[in-house]
Amino acid sequence: MNRRAIVISAASVVALAGTFGLTTSASAADFPSKPITLVVGSGPGSAPDTISRIVADGMSGIFGQPVVVENRPGAAGNIGASAVAKADPDGYTLMMMTAVHSISPSLQKNLDYSFSDDFTPVGKVAEVPLMFVVNKELGVTDMAAFIERAKQGDLFYSTPGVGTLQHLSTEDFDKMNDIKMTMVPYKGG
User: Fold this and answer.
1) Would you say 1 and 127 are in contact if contact means Cβ atoms under 8 Å apart?
2) Domains in the chain, please, with CATH?
3) How many angstroms separate the CA atoms of 57 and 35, rounded?
4) pLDDT 10s digits, 94-121
5) Using an 8 Å Cβ cutoff, are 159 and 186 in contact?
């Protein structure tokens, strides 16, 4: 998906989303009358952050108000989601979520929000592929060679945190191939 398609998709989604929280004293023509906050549950430089900044720029141009990206990383995006769930339902606090939020209730028992009760998904903005890459010095050039090398042990992989798509995908990959790599969580993207 190119930059223009992301901005157009996001603007349509946000225009619709922004009208959900309007109070009876405000009209749709008055929205937005102040800056909008777009919360991202991951750190600066991550794919959701990068996409959110493109979307925020496009929205600012359309709405004539600043759209501020606020990074609230941690707990696989749940810190940001919790903040948005507790925000006033006035359309001025939005969130760029990833698919992991729909499965967070299965992974974390003590969430202080409900994905199904506190949020309404209004549209898909972008698709972000997960890529499997290794250091060139590892000396493998295809997946079969990598799996053979991984069976020897002592391999590590990075993720933006426990419970993220990168973490869960790699754990599934390990299980399917009877290997065990060690996760190293990093802050941010």
Assistant:
1) yes
2) 3-118 (3.40.190.150), 136-185 (no CATH)
3) 12
4) 999 988 877 887 888 888 988 889 999 8
5) yes
CB-based contacts of 181: which residues, under 8 Å, 6+ apart? 150, 155, 156, 157, 170, 174
Four-residue CA torsion sign, 73, 74, 75, 80 = negative
CA atoms within 13 A on the CB side of 3: 6
Q: Among 120, 66, 117, which residue's Cα sits nearest to residue 97?
A: 120
Distance of CA 27 to the CA centre of its chain: 31
Give the global pTM. 0.75
DSSP 64: S
Q: Are 18 and 120 in contact (CB under 8 A)?
A: no
